Amino acid sequence: MPETPLASPFSDFTDQVFQNLRRADQRRWAGAYLAGLLITPGKKSVRRLAGAVSASPTAAQSLRQFVSLSPWDWDPVMHELTRWAENHGRVSSWAIGRAVLPKRGDRSVGVHRSFDPVSGRTLNCQLGLGAFLGIDDLHVPVDWRLLLPAPWTDDAQLRRRARIPEDVGHRPLWAQALDLVDTLEARTAPTSAPVIADLSDDPDVSLFLRGLSQRARDFVVAVPQHLKVLPVGDRTPGSPEPVSARDHVSSGNTDSVLLTAADGHQQHTRVRSVLVRLPGDRPGVTPEYPYRIFTEVLPESRSASMWITSLTHQQLDNVASLAAQRTRTTTAVAGMERHFGLLDFEGRSFPGWYHHMTLVSAAYTYQRLTHRPVPRHLPCCPAPLSRDHQHRLHLV
Question: Is residue 356 part of a domain?
C-alpha cells in the first residue's frame, strides 16, 4: 500500500470525522478500522478486518488495542459525524431507536436478561439506544447510549472490570432518550424536525413526553396502550378522571388516511384518533388541546401500535406517515448487523463498546449516504504499537 494517502471522498470523510483524535496514529488506525468494516465480507472480527487492510502480522493486535484500550474520546467523532451527515441531505426527522446485542456469558459491559419485542424472546444481551437523523428515505445513526442496569453501576467490582467512568450511573430509558435529544439539539443546525420514537414498553413514557414538550420539540411517539390520558373537557379538580389511551381512543373519530410507508409505498388505511391532555398539564401553560392519540384500525386478531403526537395542526395523513418511519430505524440496525459488524465485537469494556458503535455508525452512514466504495489504494496502517505504549494503554 502506498505511503501517501490518495484524495478521495473516503479520505475526506475520515479527515473530517476523526480530526479530533489527538494522535496521528489514532487517526490512521481509525481509518483502517473503518475501511475494514466497509470492505471485509462476512463476519467482521478484528483479525479479518486487519487482514483486509494490512499485511502486517501485528495489525490485528494493534486494531484490537485501538478499539478496546486506546483512550480516544468518541464524543467529538460522533459530533463530526452528525455535522457530515447534515451536509448530505435535508434532515426531516430525529429518531430514537434500539439495538439489541445478544451476548454469551456475563463478561460484556451492561449485559443482562431483557425481553426483545422484535424477536418475542428474552435474551442475554446489551441494549443500545441510538439517535438517528432522518435524511431522504434513510435513518442514519449519529449517537448511542449504552443502557446500564443498576447492578452494573452499583457494584464497584463490575465498574472497575468494565472501566465504567465514575460519572456514569444508571439512567432509565426515557432519560437516556431525552439526553440523546439534547445532544442532537446541541450539535445540529436549528430545525423543526420532529422526534420519532417507540417507547411503547416504557411505563414512564409520560416523563419523556413532558420533557419534549418543555423543550418545545414536536414528536410522534409510540406509547403503551395503558398510558393514562385526560379526556378534553372540564379542568376542575377530580374531573375528568384519567383513562387509558386504548379505552379513550375507542371513542374517537375514524378517518381514512393516505399512509406513506417507510419504503415509499402509499396505501389508504383507517385511523382512529382523539385529542387529549396528559395528567399534570397546568392551565395557562399548555395548550387547550396539546396532543392527539391515534391508532390504525385493524382486525381484532391483530394489535396496532398506539401513538401520541404534538402535531395536532398537521393532517393525520402526514402524522401517520411519520409514525410509519419507525421501521427505518429498525432497518438501519438490521443493516448494521448484517453488513457492518454491529454484533461482531465482544464489547466487554465501556470505552470499547462506544468505540465500536462509533466506528460501525460511521461506516454505515458513509456508505448509505455516498454509495461510494472505499478506494482500492488505502493509506498505510501506522506502525505497530510499542511495548511501552501497549503497557500505558493497559493502565488507562
Answer: yes
CA–CA dist 303, 301 (Å, integer): 7
Task: Report DSSP letters for 153-220, one per residue.
Answer: HH-HHHHHHHT--TT-----HHHHHHHHHHHHHHHSPP--PPEEEE-TT-TTHHHHHHHHHHTT--EE
pLDDT tens-place string over residues 203-242 = 999 999 999 999 999 999 999 999 999 988 655 555 678 9
Helix axes 24-39, 9-17, angle to 10 degrees: 130
Give the domain range for residue 40.
9-73+347-395
What cell numbers appear for 56 in the block? 502486517
**Spatial contact of 259 and 327, defined as CB atoms under 8 Å apart:** no
Quick one: which of 375, 384, 347, 302 has its CA closest to 126?
347
Can you give the pLDDT at residue 293?
96
In a domain, 268, yes or no: no
Residue 363 belongs to a domain: yes
User: Cell numbers 471522498 label which residue?
Assistant: 9
Query: Does some domain include residue 87?
Result: no
C-alpha grid cell for residue 358?
462509533
Bridge partners (DSSP) listed for residue 144? 130
Residue 268 has pLDDT above 60, yes or no: yes
Total structural domains within the chain: 1
